[in-house]
C-alpha cells in the first residue's frame, strides 16, 4: 500500500481513512480499467488535548 494514496482525517474524536486506486491496462485488442474505493471510520472515547505543531510530534489525548 502506498501511503500517498491514503487520506487520513481526525475530527471530533473520529478517525476516518479513504483509499482510491485506479489502474488501466492496454493490450493489442483489449482495454482494462479498474477502480477501487474504500473507506473506514472509527471512534474512541479519547479526546485531543493539544494538536502537534509538526507531523513528527505525537497527538496528546486524554482517555
Main attributes of the structure:
63 residues, mainly beta, 0% helix
The structure class reads: mainly beta
Total beta-strand segments = 5
Strand and helix order: EEEEE
Termini separation (Å)?
30 Å
**Uncertain ranges:** none
Radius of gyration: 18 Å
Helix content: under 10%
How does the overall form come out from the CA principal axes? elongated
The biggest sheet amounts to: 3 strands, antiparallel
Strand line-up in the sheet with most strands: 1-2-3
Based on the structure, what is the oligomeric state of the protein chains? single chain
| Share in β-strands | over 45%
What number is the mean pLDDT? 76
Q: Please, how many helices?
A: 0
Model description:
This protein is mostly beta strands and 63 residues long. The protein contains no helices and 5 strands. It has strands spanning 6-11, 14-26, 31-43, 47-50, 60-62. It has a 3-stranded antiparallel sheet with strand order 1-2-3, with no helix packed on it. Strands 4-5 form a two-stranded antiparallel ribbon. A hairpin with a 4-residue loop joins strand 2 (14-26) and strand 3 (31-43). The radius of gyration is 18 Å and the shape is elongated.
Please outline what is shown here.
By secondary structure, the protein is mainly beta. The protein has no helices and 5 strands.
Which helices and strands, and how do they pair?
Blueprint: E1 6-11, E2 14-26, E3 31-43, E4 47-50, E5 60-62
Antiparallel strand pairs: 1-2, 2-3, 4-5
